[in-house]
Structure formats: C-alpha cells, structure tokens
Design a protein that fits this description.
three-stranded antiparallel sheet; homodimer; 16 strands; alpha/beta; TIM Barrel; about 40% helix
C-alpha cells in the first residue's frame, strides 16, 4: 500500500494536491518542510512550530550520527520522543553532507552555497566552523562499498555505507527516510557524473535490501494508520545531463521505493532546474510522492510545484531569518536597518504570523542591532509562517482549480 | 494614595504578603522580577514569560538610553508597546551601570561579579564585551551635577543627571522607576561612601522634584487603576557601614517616594547582607514596598523576604540558564555534561515548567553540546519558572501562616 494519496491533479500543469500518510499523521502536499538539522528548529520550540502549522520537519542524519549519535537517540526512544515532536519527521541519507564536505572543499569552492546562494549549503550550513579541517585536504574517499569521511566537528574518521545509512536512520526513527546517494557537484563532468549515478543506483538496491529487514517504526500517536513503518525514498541523480537524469528517473522510479527524491546538481541558473524537472517527471510513477532535496527559496516553489514536485526542504528560510532577512512577497526585508528603528509597522501588515501580529519593525531592528536572541527567534517564526502560508495558498489554489 | 497594599504580615518575621498596584495590573509580592536588559528576556517571547507566570519584568535604563535610545522607545509608544508586554515594567535608574563601568574597572576588578559571583555584574552583564574601552582609563566623572561616562558600545561620551534619568525613564514609560543614585563599591572606604551617600540623597530630592512635573504614565489595559502614573522608588546607599545605612534608610524612607530600593555594596559575604537589611528595615515606613536591587540567587531569597524585602530583580537565573546551569532545589544542575546524554529524566521530575514537562536531560545536553539556541531558551524557561515557583510557595506560606 502506497504512502501517498493524490487528492487532485491539475489539468494544466503537473501539480498534484495530496497527502503523505505516516505513523505520526499526514502531511498535506505540496508542502514545505522546515529543517531542524540537529533535532531542533533553531530558536523555536515544537509548540511554536505547531502554531506556525508545519505538518513535518526534517533532521540531518549526518549531524545526528556525529552528535549526539544515532545510538543515543535510539536509546532515548527515537527522534520523535527525543525532540518532543509527535508529527512526521524526515531524515536525509547523510549523502549530501558527506559530499559537501568532500567535493566542494576539494574543488576549493568552500561551500556549495557559493554555487547556489542560499541553498544546498551543506554540512557547514548551520553556523558551524570549518576549524577542524585543513581546507585543501581530500576529505572523502568514495568506494563501491561506501564513503569514508572526516567529521567536521573533530576531524575523526567515519565510514557510511548504504546499509549503515539505513541502520542509522532506523535508529533515529524518522517516518520518512532516504536511500544513501552520492550527491555530485555542478563541477563534476559527464563521465564522473555517470559513473557516480550508476553507483548510486547500485547503492539504492542495497538500501532497499537493508530496508526490507527492518523492524516497524516507532509507534505513532495512537491512531491506527496504514503506514506503521518507516517509508524509504530513493534519490535520482545525474547532474545536468538529460540522458543521465532520464535514466536515473526510470531506475529509481521503478525500484520498490515509497517515494522519489530529486538530488544532486541542478544546474547553474534557476531555469536549468525546471528543465531537469521537466525531463524527470513524465518518467516517474504518478503514485509515488516526489521530494526536491534542499531546494525551497520562495521564488522556486510555485514553478517546481507546477513541474510536479510534492515536497521541499530547505534551510534558506531559517538561515535568512537568523541573518536578519525576512521573507516578504517579492523578496526580502532587511530587519537590521537603522531606519527601521522608527517604523511602527510590522514586517508585513497582511501577514498573520506571531511576529507580525505582535511586533514592529522598530523592535525587530532594535533586537538585531542589540544582538538579542529574540531577533532571530521572531524572524524565524515569520519566515517559516511565510513558507507555510505560501504552500497553504498553493494547496487552496489547487483545490479550487478545475 | 500608596501603590502598595499589605495583605498580611508575618508574626514571626518582617515578611509581608502584598500587592503593588500599577496602571498595567498588580504585582503579587514577595516577587522575583526577571530582567530584560535590552527590552527582551533573552530567548523568550512575552507569551512564554506569561506562561511562566511572571507579573512584571525589569529593563535597564542605561542600556535602552544607549540603544535604541529612549526617544525612539517613546516615539514607538513606550516600552510596553515596544516590547509587547502589557503587564507592569520596572526600569532602574542607570546609576548602577554607570558605576560598574567606572569604579569597578578603575579599581581593576573588571566586573563587580568578581566580588559577588552571579550577581550585580553590571553593565557588561548581558554578554557584552568591553572591547570599546581601554581597561585602566577612568570612565566616569562624578560631580554634584551628575555623571559623565563612556558608552560600553562605542566609547562615546554621555552625561546623566538625576533630572535626565527621570526624563529618560519617563520616555521609556515603565510603571515603576528608580531615583538616580551613585552605587558605591565594596572597595570604597567609609569617607567616600559617606560623601557619595549624601550626594545620592541630594540627587533623590532632585529626582522627586523632576518627577513632580511629569505627565501621567502610558495608559494601562483599560481597567481603571488607582495608579494612573509612574511610581518612583528612592534608593538607599551607605555601603557596609551601619550608621550610614541607617541614616540613608531614614532619609530615603521619609522623602515622598512611592517605594524604597536598597542598593550599593552589601558586604563581602552573604551574612553581611542580612545584617544590613536588619539595620535598615525597622527604620522604613511599613506602607512603602521595598526592592532589593540586583540580588536574587535562590539561596538569598527566603532570608531576605523574612528580613522584609518585597521584590527582587537579578540576572543570575537567566544568565546561569544561558551558561547551561539549571536551578534545582539546593543548587545547580549542569546541563552540559556528557553523562546526561543517556538520561531520560527531566531536569527535575517534580518541576512543572514547560522544559521539564516536555524534554529530557539527554535532549538538553545535546542542545547545549551542539550549540543549539534552543538549549538556552529551554533552560531560561526552567530557571524563571523555578524562581516564580519559589516565590509562589513563599507567598502561599505567608498566606497560610498565623
């Protein structure tokens, strides 16, 4: 039985209105999934996140494997109990972080953020320093078996295989997990991207095999649910190359995964991404939900939904908030500017978020300029509400469309 | 008409159960007042503070005068509106911060915290660096007219007189404000302390004079209230010297203030403080509320209440929280320890705070060790609840006592 139920399909585009079913409740799609890298949305309690209306959140396997360790999370009863979030949780496979520490530094680009500003900024994305690692050193060694890499925290050596990624994600206990993939960079050429993709496909089969032997997921909120287990997404790679993307879509789409993730390099400009989505989508089985990994700036959303994407995760809204950039229709509002200090208006008069209902631009400017924690907290609440509201409107529009 | 109503007096001690009336509601005393130095409790929204049950909070005049500036706060409708807190607000006079930047650095003690760990740590108390100011330079110049001092933010020169302190506090618009005083250090000798105290008394008269010409305070929550104006506390000084403390108590107690603050050096060990309180209290008018400035570690509270103190403000509970120290009965619990990572228990099983009801020691240890903002936030919620609960119990005990 599938985890995804399509409620309605658009006639004009590939957009779908649906629900993803998990042991911890449903996710209404299209959906934005806030990222709580280290089992916490930076600055918000789970109750504040519920007030925003998020159905689910995503944690990073790589980070939690290193700290506090997946075994500890398992002993504490799994991620839901550990972080006190009783709604659906996603974990990624760790592949992207392993990649971003390796290839990106190796090519001297530092962070992938230099290539795609605001998105896919990798393992160092949550304010963590690169202090432990000399820049030019080769950090990852990829073999058929898996990936050897160094911790960004203390430089210690680790090895993750497809089987181990599944094991870690089983220990963490998220509802929706991803197969281990190599996330190639836009700097990789056709030959490397092809070789890597083929290996990712072999890894996908190994992940599925490891996944079959798993126990049921941590129990849900008590209500009986058709999906009393973790669901596994495969990940499409193939970079910016049409034949590879199409091959990967066919292979991953037709293996026994519950859903399909779209990963890897998505081109150098935004239009490349939509081109890639257009290659992939017609080849994917309709009944499987599609997740676009690490993408989710407001300007990407609507077009990607129309291209057939169901869910998105991205650190941009939360990271922008901490840096004092509030999301507003058509762009960003700089919360730090001195001229805001005499502005009684909220960030956006039409916004219904906690921050806009209660606080002025003046107060927010003061908080950011004075280095008060409450600045990033209130900006995060605004930006996540902005994203949730954006998707709420997209869902309503799809529901009403003919 | 007085702002203070005594509901009950203890027969055995000088403790009083009462309420302080303001235009923004009442404060049940004895009370702990959380400190929101820069018009924000670090890490908490006002709704989280209300959930904790705090009746009021205190902001620092010195900090808000420098940033964002009292004129801006006034333009934004006053502190209540600015920070979205509709309950009573206190502001101190700025005198302590001016002192702590001056005398303390001048004597090479850096922060007063070196003398009284955890308390009265002065202008640099909220994590702000001394970067702008060379250490040995004389930072304050005290004259009969007022105090010239340098900003800890940018080193710029400023001058505050008693009249200016009242004007700044009027602009900020708190319900309960303090007369401008010189806060002497434990390192000052008898002669200096006496000279300074006499000047503080002359300043007290000037503050009262300036205060008389004020307009009514910002309007309250709509309910008619006997105190439709700001209330002004005088501040007792006199250091550790019995005759000076007694003289100051008589002078300040009998001027036309609404309440009495107890400031300045309180000795080198805790027992000195209770000795000082015992000198002062019999000389103070019963009907005026008494505030102990900058003191409020849990271990001080009960004895100070029995000595006749009605209200306390202190940064210790919130600062300890940010440093990973949770308040528990009889001491502190170190939230950062690695061994907590496998501890499913809350900080305190008997505690009813949001943090203890929802999160384990394991999760808190993870958050602090991973540098997540949510660690300090949850610890702050716990420590402020701990303080509020401590006072709730003290009030209940007083209510039941014969």
């Amino acid at each position: 039985m599938g985890i995804f139920q399509i409620i309605k399909k658009s006639n004009r585009t590939r957009a779908r209105l649906g629900i993803i079913k998990t042991a911890h409740g449903v996710i209404h799609t299209p959906a934005f999934i806030p990222v709580g890298t280290q089992a916490a949305i930076k600055g918000l309690t789970v109750d504040q996140l519920k007030e925003i209306g998020s159905d689910s959140l995503l944690c990073n396997t790589y980070h939690l494997y290193l700290r506090p360790g997946d075994e500890i999370v398992k002993k504490m009863g799994g991620l839901h109990k550990f972080m006190n979030w009783d709604r659906p949780i996603w974990t990624d496979s760790g592949g992207f972080q392993v990649f971003s520490l390796g290839a990106a530094l190796e090519h001297g680009v530092g962070k992938v953020a230099n290539i795609f500003p605001g998105e896919k900024t990798g393992v160092l994305r949550e304010g963590e320093a690169e202090h432990a690692i000399p820049k030019k050193e080769k950090l990852t060694k990829i073999s058929e078996e898996g990936v050897e890499f160094r911790s960004h925290i203390d430089g210690s050596s680790h090895f993750i295989s497809p089987e181990k990624s599944i094991q870690i994600q089983e220990n963490l206990g998220a509802d929706l997990i991803f197969a281990f993939d190599e996330c190639t960079s836009p700097l990789h050429d056709y030959e490397y991207t092809k070789r890597s993709m083929k290996r990712t496909h072999r890894w996908a089969v190994r992940c599925l095999e490891a996944f079959k032997h798993k126990k049921p997921a941590h129990s849900g909120r008590g209500s009986p649910n058709p999906i009393g287990r973790q669901a596994l997404y495969g990940v499409i790679q193939g970079g910016v190359f049409e034949d590879l993307r199409k091959e990967s879509a066919k292979v991953i789409g037709n293996l026994g995964f519950d859903g399909v993730g779209i990963g890897g390099a998505m081109g150098k400009i935004k239009s490349d991404m939509y081109k890639i989505l257009d290659w992939i989508m017609p080849l994917l089985p309709e009944e499987k939900p599609r997740h676009l990994l690490g993408i989710g700036s407001p300007e990407d959303i609507e077009k990607a939904v129309m291209a057939g994407v169901d869910t998105f995760d991205c650190v941009a809204p939360t990271r922008l908030a901490r840096n004092g950039a509030a999301l507003v229709e058509g762009g960003r509002f700089n919360l730090k500017l001195a001229k805001n200090l005499e502005d009684k208006n909220p960030i956006d008069k039409k916004c219904g978020c906690y921050t806009c209902k209660n606080y002025s631009r003046s107060y927010l400017a003061h908080l950011f300029r004075a280095g008060e924690m409450l600045g990033p907290i209130l900006a995060t609440a605004h930006n996540l509400w902005f994203m949730e509201n954006l998707f709420r409107k997209i869902r309503e529009k799809l529901a009403k469309s003919k």
